[in-house]
Every structure is written in structure tokens, then in C-alpha cells.
Design goal:
single chain, about 0% strand, 7 helices
Length: about 200
């Protein structure tokens, strides 16, 4: 993969997500490279998070313990793994036939684009803050549309509504799993009696 190929694929992802997903998933990237890619994306997220905190300090929605770049990197890697496996299993449950490698490749590619977007957003925060907020909002909305196409292609669903159902179901599964973990290891859920 050359830089020009990656640039062209990034543009194609924005212009035609369905076609970009077909091209990307046809590459047959080895699993070892995917795991390396996951580590790289997590580290880049951690570095950009640290850089943004350095350049634009302010309150964070995360607990203070996650403001340490290394812990934030671990959090990102764990979140990516959780998302990949949730999308894989819920997609399979709903009739998809994609492989774990297909789902991982799709998510890692989109996360790589997110890292590139974060660089642009950091520059805009320092120069035109209002434009950075608009870019983040627009990219979040359009990013869901792109994700629908990539999940659709990776699971061979041939239906964007089915792909949307997979996204909703995987999100619900992640939230349920996290709620159970928090209630088991973090104490009772707020508002519920500890004796229930």
C-alpha cells in the first residue's frame, strides 16, 4: 500500500463508502498486520489526545485517571476490541457472514481516518475554533453513514437497514455488558438499592 493508494482510498471513502468498502475488503490484509494496525491506531489516538490536552487544556469528560496518555491508549485499544467483537458477533447473529478480519479491517480503516481528522481538528481548534466544532459534528454524522456501508459490506448483508440493526444491537450489547461489569466490580448502579 502506497501513500497515494491510501490517499485515493480515503477520498473514495468520503465520496462513495460502498465502493471504498469493496476495495478495502478485497485487499486480504493478514491478521498479524491487523493486530499491528490496532496497536498503531490506539497509540496515535493516545498521542493526539496528549497533544490536544497540551495545546488546549481544559476540563475533560473522562475521569482524571484516563488523562494519562498511556492509560488513554489502553482504553482506546480496549474500546476498539470491544467494538470489533460486538459488531462481529451481533452481525453473525443477524445473518451476516463476515469474518473477524473483515470487521477488524473496516473498523481500523475508519479509525485511521478518524486519526487524520483529529489532526485537522487540532489545527482548526488553534486557528478557527468554530469551524473545528462544525467539522466534528458533520464528520460524526457522516461517519455513521460510512460505517453503515462498511458493516454492510463486511457482513455481506446487502441491506443498509440490516447494517443499522447490527450497529444498534452491537451498541446495546456493549452498553449492557459495561453496565453489568460496572455493577459487578464498581458497586451498585446509581439510584438502585445495594440490597436488591
Amino acid at each position: 500500500m502506497t501513500p497515494s493508494f491510501l490517499r485515493d482510498l480515503a477520498v473514495l471513502t468520503i465520496k462513495s463508502p460502498a465502493e471504498a468498502s469493496r476495495v478495502l475488503l478485497g485487499l486480504q490484509i493478514p491478521r498479524e498486520a491487523l493486530w499491528t494496525g490496532l496497536a498503531l491506531v490506539a497509540v496515535l489516538n493516545g498521542l493526539l489526545f496528549a497533544l490536544s490536552n497540551l495545546l488546549v487544556p481544559g476540563p475533560s469528560p473522562l475521569p482524571d485517571v484516563f488523562l494519562v496518555p498511556a492509560l488513554y491508549t489502553v482504553l482506546v485499544a480496549g474500546g476498539l476490541l470491544l467494538s470489533i467483537y460486538a459488531l462481529f458477533w451481533t452481525g453473525r447473529f443477524m445473518g451476516g457472514t463476515g469474518t473477524l478480519d473483515d470487521i477488524m479491517l473496516a473498523i481500523l480503516w475508519l479509525q485511521g481516518l478518524r486519526v487524520a481528522l483529529m489532526v485537522v481538528v487540532i489545527v482548526l481548534i488553534l486557528t478557527v475554533p468554530v469551524l473545528s466544532a462544525l467539522l466534528v459534528f458533520g464528520a460524526s454524522i457522516y461517519g455513521l453513514y460510512i460505517l453503515l456501508h462498511f458493516v454492510n459490506r463486511a457482513h455481506r448483508l446487502d441491506s443498509l437497514p440490516k447494517s443499522a440493526a447490527v450497529l444498534v444491537a452491537s451498541t446495546a450489547a456493549i452498553l449492557l455488558g459495561l453496565t453489568l461489569l460496572i455493577s459487578l466490580f464498581g458497586g451498585p448502579i446509581s439510584g438502585l438499592s445495594a440490597n436488591v
